[in-house]
Design brief:
By secondary structure, this protein is an alpha+beta fold. About 40% of the residues lie in helices and about 25% in strands. It is globular and about 60 Å long. It binds zinc ion (ZN). The site of zinc ion has 8 residues, from strand 10.
């Protein structure tokens, strides 16, 4: 038996016989068994922030070998994953405005994370966060943009147990500019917020949908998903590409449908693969 409980971010299934207690810390909740532990709650009170931060950080470290402040804020229930995605697209001015806690509490949580990470020998890496848009503007974390606070937010902590090569690779990955995402809309009755035009694909900007012409991607060619080798080559040979996603009504989520790539890169990749095939055939023929 279970019942649905409305949390601030999303409804969750809670087993029967469990009482959900809002412990008055914004969106932080605790679960207690009605009969067994109600009294315990009165004695215990809310769990300290340090404990929640450390638990979230330890869990992240176990699954990914690194911890980021954003992941911890999501894990302790102060930040919603959807808001993080909107912020990454540049549609929210600062991540702080989406966090369900006052700036002083956020600072406390990030400071706790930093102290815990330093005590445990984790290695700090300042990461540049860029907007997932053609402009690639640096993302803002706080309203005040105080350098110390911004640094706390952008520091990813990496496990020192990781071999140096893997650590370097991880840091490179952190600093890679985000892939551009282009939407293949289900309906074509949308209007570009800049020129009033339309098209087969759009990108989302803070002010609304924009056509490929206005964001400087109109020269790219669509390559449908399916041919992994061709996709990889065409992507590697060009300097620009964008991931094409389309909303699936059945699965209720956006799905990858292919890439927009540079036509010259695509042609070169196709030629290379075609040239390689007869050579491979000759090689297998010679072995027989
Ligand atoms: Zn336009």
């Amino acid at each position: 038996m279970s019942r649905k409980v409305q949390f601030k971010a999303e409804p969750r299934e809670i087993p029967d016989g469990i009482l959900v207690v809002d412990i008055a810390c914004g969106s932080i909740f605790a679960l207690f068994d009605v009969q067994e532990r109600e009294r315990e709650y009165c004695v215990m009170g809310p769990r300290p922030l340090a404990q929640r931060v450390i638990e979230a950080a330890e869990a992240a470290l176990q699954t990914a070998d690194f911890v980021t402040p954003i992941d911890v804020l999501v894990a302790i229930g102060w930040l919603d994953g959807g808001a993080v995605a909107r912020w990454r697209q540049g549609r929210i001015p600062s991540i702080e405005s989406a966090v369900q806690a006052p700036p002083s509490r956020i600072f406390e949580a990030l400071d706790l994370l930093g102290s815990w990470a330093a005590q445990n020998g984790l290695i700090p890496n300042e990461v540049q966060y860029l907007e997932r848009s053609t402009e690639r503007r640096p993302l803002r974390f706080s309203q005040s943009t105080h350098p110390a606070l911004e640094r706390l937010y952008r520091t990813h902590w990496v496990s020192s147990a990781l071999p140096e090569r893997e650590r370097k690779h991880l840091v490179e990955k952190f600093n890679q500019p985000p892939e551009l995402v282009v939407i293949w809309p289900l309906k074509d009755d949308w209007t570009c917020n800049r020129c009033g035009g339309g098209g087969d694909f759009l990108t989302m900007e803070p002010s609304g949908p924009a056509c490929l012409g206005c964001v400087g991607l109109e020269d790219l060619e669509f390559l449908a998903a399916g041919d992994a080798l061709l996709t990889r080559r065409a992507k590697a040979k060009g300097t620009r590409h964008a991931v094409v996603v389309r909303f699936s009504r059945n699965r209720r989520r956006y799905e990858r449908r292919g890439l927009l790539v540079e036509p010259a890169a695509l042609a070169e990749a196709e030629r290379e693969i075609k040239d390689r095939k007869p050579a491979q055939g000759a090689l297998t023929g010679a072995r027989q």
